[in-house]
Design the sequence.
């Protein structure tokens, strides 16, 4: 018998080149690609809640003043622009502790940090030098202003002994009103046991009214308890 031809060996498959150590082997793709995460919608900014007295002004006072004075544009209706509360302390030049107490109490009453007022000039008769601390004050606007006025008219003033209302003659001729308070203890925020000295204060209410008659009507409708 003739010799059968020898089967040729199949060539060996080339060896796979090893990936360089620095390169990470690619991960196998998942069968179903995950959907990209949707961006979360930004939360709308929380609407600042209006103070009760501000809402009262918008809903009740504005229509009442339009009817009373015949304003053709609601933008012409007077409003309260700011409230300034001031405590004068001449004695503080001799006793710094009084100033600390006044600043702390005014901050509690107003809900805002007050500033210290300084003497603008020297007065030898009062032993006062320019730059010395003589009082403290705070200026309120926006919701803090309305919240302070609400507490003043509806909580603090009715606590005055034998209270019969505030004077309607303390306007300045341009619709702005100033009220004097003799005792800080009418404000419920003040702790009687921590008070070192009874302190009076002036409260100035600045309005956009063009006359005292308009300013008086504005504050009356807002709830200021004027004397009858």
Sequence:
């Amino acid at each position: 018998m003739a010799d059968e031809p020898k089967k040729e060996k199949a060539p060996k498959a080339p060896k796979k080149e090893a990936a360089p150590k620095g390169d990470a082997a690619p991960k196998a793709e998942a069968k179903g690609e995950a959907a990209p995460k949707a961006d979360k919608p930004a939360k709308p900014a929380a609407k600042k809640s209006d103070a009760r007295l501000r809402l009262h002004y918008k809903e009740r006072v504005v229509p009442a003043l339009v009817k009373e004075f015949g304003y053709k544009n609601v933008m012409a209706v007077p409003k309260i622009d700011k409230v300034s509360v001031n405590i004068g302390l001449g004695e503080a030049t001799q006793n710094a502790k009084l100033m600390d107490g006044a600043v702390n109490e005014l901050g509690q009453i107003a809900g805002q940090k007050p500033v210290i007022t300084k003497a603008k000039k020297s007065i030898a008769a009062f032993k006062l030098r320019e730059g010395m601390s003589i009082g403290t004050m705070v200026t309120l606007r926006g919701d803090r202003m309305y919240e302070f006025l609400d507490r003043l008219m509806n909580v603090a003033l009715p606590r005055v002994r034998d209270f019969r209302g505030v004077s309607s003659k303390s306007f300045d001729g341009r619709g702005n009103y100033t009220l004097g308070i003799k005792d800080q203890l009418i404000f419920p925020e003040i702790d009687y046991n921590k008070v070192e000295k009874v302190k009076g204060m002036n409260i100035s209410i600045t309005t956009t009214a063009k006359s005292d008659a308009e300013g008086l009507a504005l504050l009356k409708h807002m709830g200021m308890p004027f004397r009858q």
User: Anything to note?
Assistant: Residues 24-32 have pLDDT under 50 and may be disordered. Residues 120 and 167 are 31 Å apart (CA to CA). Residues 52-69 form the longest helix (18 residues). The helical segments are 52-69, 96-110, 142-156, 212-222.
